[in-house]
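Researcher: Sequence recovery benchmark, item below. Answer with residues only.
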């Protein structure tokens, strides 16, 4: 009698590639988030304490990026996380919660305004582009002032 053994199932190459990719993606994502959180919690981050201060720092930082020609409305409340968007009235909005309001985060959102918001006006959300291009780019500028 011949005994045939079926070999234990092996992951084929595409499955390994998928596992590797998802693992790498999670590592990447948490590293990116971790860098931002570490910077948020850093003692060197001075909190912005009012809407007026947010607007003052926003104008100063917008000037450094050549954004002074845009009408930017500054919102300081706890309704949304830090955000930037283009409104149908042709204005930009830059919002900060009280917890998130720091110069670093203002710079981060302004860099999105400079680089990303025009392209987002009429386009569908593009998450790979957001996570691999827009978010790291704005994070580098926000924390280190590096323009990519
Ligand atoms: Zn961002």
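Model:
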């Amino acid at each position: 009698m011949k005994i045939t053994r079926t070999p234990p199932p092996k992951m084929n190459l595409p499955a390994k590639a998928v596992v590797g990719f998802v693992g790498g993606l999670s590592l990447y994502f948490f590293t990116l988030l971790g860098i931002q959180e570490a910077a948020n919690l850093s003692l060197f981050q001075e909190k912005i304490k009012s809407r007026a201060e947010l607007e003052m720092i926003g104008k100063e930082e917008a000037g450094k990026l050549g954004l002074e020609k845009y009408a930017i409305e500054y919102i300081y409340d706890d309704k949304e996380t830090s955000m930037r968007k283009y409104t149908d009235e042709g204005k930009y909005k830059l919002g900060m919660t009280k917890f998130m309001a720091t110069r670093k985060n203002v710079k981060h959102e302004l860099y999105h305004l400079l680089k990303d918001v025009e392209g987002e006006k009429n386009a569908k959300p593009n998450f790979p582009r957001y996570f691999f291009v827009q978010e790291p780019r704005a994070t580098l500028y926000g924390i280190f002032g590096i323009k990519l």
